[in-house]
Design a protein that fits this description.
The chain is mostly helical and 253 residues long. It has a single domain (52-252), classed as MetI-like (MetI-like fold, Orthogonal Bundle). It has helices spanning 8-30, 43-52, 54-86, 88-103, 106-117, 121-145, 149-157, 162-200, 205-214, 218-252. The chain starts with 7 loop residues before the first helix and ends with a helix.
Length: 253
């Protein structure tokens, strides 16, 4: 018996719809809008936040911090991971560092950066970057270790230049690992950025969540949180998932 093909986009829509139904049921059970309002009750505060310009501004600030942290974290983490995966001596020296930073709580690193550098953008970005580099390095180290030695030997036989070898032999094999690191990294980075904003910034989604938390305004906390989650879902669907699929295509043919 053949199964009917399921379109990934439809599955995602129905999955999110089920989550929305669970929200409606939970809000109905609590029967208290100050604890958990119904989804449609958020439309009015959402519209007000958009019209006032507050939501676009704070959303833009958070996205800017995410991008500023994501780019250097991916670049440095990928370079370190590749070196650790290909050069055993580098791996031996840096592996203890990797273990330390992987197990160092993000909150501790954020607080230390604020104490050492100050409550400024530099400290915020550095804290997020340092939190993410170890994860990227770990994934890329495994990717570097998994490089096909036969393809490397073939490149040597044909005397490929370093850049040609990197582009046509190494990068296609590392692409799935880079895509996985980017996809997971973005999901982690934006959460850490919210904590950074919650603790010590005067703008961003995290700052607004902190502000409305002090006012016990659940509706506005949900408005700002869901607005950014919506943006991340779009980035995931339109950029990250297609990029990861293309990166893995050469393996599946």
């Amino acid at each position: 018996m053949n199964k009917m093909p399921q379109h990934p986009a439809l599955v995602r829509v129905f999955s999110l719809g089920l989550l929305l139904l669970l929200w409606v049921a939970a809000a109905d059970l609590t029967a208290d809008a100050s604890v958990l309002p119904q989804p449609w009750a958020l439309w009015s505060p959402f519209a007000e936040a958009v019209v006032s310009g507050a939501l676009p501004y704070h959303l833009g600030m958070t996205l800017w911090r995410v991008v500023c942290a994501f780019v250097p974290a991916m670049a440095v983490g990928a370079a370190l991971g590749f070196l650790m995966g290909r050069i055993p001596s580098v791996d031996q020296w840096l592996d203890p560092w990797l273990v330390v930073f992987l197990n160092l709580p993000a909150l501790v690193l954020i607080v230390l950066c604020y104490l050492w550098i100050g409550l400024n953008e530099t400290a915020a970005i550095i804290a997020v970057v340092l939190n993410k580099i170890p994860n990227v390095a770990t994934i890329l180290r495994e990717g570097a270790r998994a490089l096909d030695p036969d393809l490397g030997a073939l490149a040597q036989v044909y005397r490929m230049r370093s850049l040609t070898r990197l582009r046509h032999v190494i990068m296609p094999q590392l692409a799935p690992f880079i895509a996985a690191a980017a996809r997971g990294g973005l999901a982690v980075i934006w959460k850490i950025v919210l904590v950074v904003e919650f603790l010590g910034r005067s703008s961003g989604i995290g700052f607004q969540i902190h502000f409305y938390f002090q006012l016990f305004d659940v509706a506005m906390v949900l408005v700002y949180a869901l607005s950014f989650i919506g943006v991340m879902l779009l980035v995931e669907a339109l950029i990250l998932q297609p990029a990861e699929s293309r990166a893995r295509r050469w393996r599946t043919g």
